[in-house]
Amino acid sequence: RSEFTSSDVMNCIEWIMPDMMKAFAGSRKVIAVIPRGAEDVKKAEKIEKLLNWQFMHQCQGFLTLQAWIKAGLVYGISHIKTGWDEQYARKGFAQPEVIEPEFMRMMEDDSIESLSYLDVYEAPAAPQQAQGMPNAAAYGVSPAQIEMMRVYTDVQGEQKIKIYSGPKLEVIAPEDFLIDPEAKDVDSARFVIHRVVRTISYLREKERDGVYSNIDRVVKLSSDGDDSEYDSTEESARLLDSAAYSAMSYSGEGEAQQIGRRRVDVFEWWGELDVEGDGRTDSYLVVMCKDTIIRMERNPYAHGKSPFVDLLPIPDIFSYEGIGYAELAGPHQEVKTAVIKQMLDNASFTNNQMWEVDETAGVDVDALANPFPGKVVFTNRLGGFKAITPAQLDGSSYNLIEFAQGQLEQLTGVTRYNQGLDSKSLNKTATGISAIMDASNKRKELIARTIAETGLRKLFMKMLQLDQQFVDQNIVIRLFNEPLEISPDDLAGNFDVSVDIGSSVTDDDTQVQQLYTVLQHIYSRIKPV
């Protein structure tokens, strides 16, 4: 009858997350760029600062890393998508008159769209006048120097202004990522698929930019409302658990009436294709929606791989997916939940006992069914009813909970001492506590090193390759209140990326205290002169 659920899985993850975030998003330097040649040493220093700045500031590195690591701890594996994002803002303009050279320049400008004019006429202009003003005499120009120039009136259009150009990182939900079932990792997979939900308006915008095509067919095949054909149990469970989603009682009727708001499933397929039929495969990107190919081209990234990076905090040998804390701590959580539910039910039965009633005693049963302090229960015969109180649970139930908790701590490495809690079952001496903390820190340090090698190192390597491909002009970043200019030439070369967490997952205060103790011991042995 009790609805209690133990939170052991969440507790394990939440208690290990601070150490992981301290290791990778703390004050110490984690990412190091290593040059392969002596001539690239100074370049490596600039690239190292650039990568850290892009990750923490442009990509909201702390929040992105937190979601990526937490997803890996829950599910055993998590994925992040890398890419280069260029965002534009459209600003309309209107000019009453524009001379022909300026109008031709507007037509050749790729950033100007929807250019139009109302009328055109010819007017006298001096060649040396930049704006082609017709009143040449006022400027001392002789009639021989005057020539006719076309002038466009009421010129209107839109100009695309680039507001962002840089890397983009996106943590992917597990149900939106599909991979070759025989793959050992993302880079060696024959194909990977990313499912995203887009609106028709978004597809139209990308078609306008020349990215997608065949959107008219997608609109024709899409039914009214939200017609997602991809069944996702995981996503549905998350939405149903959301109180806000349940309270909205959402229905897609509004979207059915407006085509631009319709949502459709878009599948991005990354893999190898033999398009020419000559027995040689090339890396391709194929985007499909409603059984319609809306984009097909060679892999737009120079590294030739899919843009995804996987993270496995606890790898499972010879398996693509790792082992998550939900899998480790889940059975122990179920045991504790079942036992505690029975204990709560027993306490409820003890405090709200049942009654044994003689049917012939004329007992007021409604009074027994709705008790409150001081209530009178009428009966025709004394002793016509008596209380039935169940026996309390013995100590074995409590021992079972303690046993399950001990097994959970041994399995996950998250002990009650890590959480600042006391436990009678553990050694309370300073040496015992230190041993417990050291053993737990070693487990967490192993997880951190695994995350660094399986995830972060590959992530920053792909970010470096994106910078080398897409940075085509000098950029200036500000570090420690000092500007740092980086040119495309600074990114050229061969570099390696390493992640050194050192002792980041251990407590710095503990190390300082140990060093202080050693200094005191040395000082006490120094004899005064």
Map the helices and strands.
Blueprint: H1 8-25, E1 31-35, H2 41-58, H3 61-75, E2 78-99, H4 100-108, E3 112-116, E4 119-125, E5 147-172, E6 177-179, E7 191-199, H5 200-208, H6 215-221, H7 233-241, H8 243-248, H9 253-257, E8 263-273, E9 282-289, E10 292-298, E11 308-311, H10 325-351, E12 354-357, H11 365-369, E13 385-388, H12 396-412, H13 430-470, E14 475-479, E15 482-486, H14 488-491, E16 495-499, H15 508-525
Antiparallel strand pairs: 1-16, 2-5, 2-11, 3-5, 4-5, 6-7, 7-8, 8-9, 9-10, 12-13, 14-15
Helix pairs in contact: 1-3, 1-10, 10-12
Weakly predicted, low-confidence segments: 128-134
Radius of gyration over C-alpha positions, nearest whole angstrom: 35 Å
Residue-averaged pLDDT: 81
Percent in helix: 25-40%
Kindly name the structural category: alpha+beta
Main beta sheet: strand number and arrangement?
5 strands, antiparallel
Structure summary, number of beta strands? 16
Question: How many angstroms separate the termini?
Answer: 78 Å
How much β-strand is present in the residues? Answer: 15-25%
The total of helices stands at: 15
Shape: extended
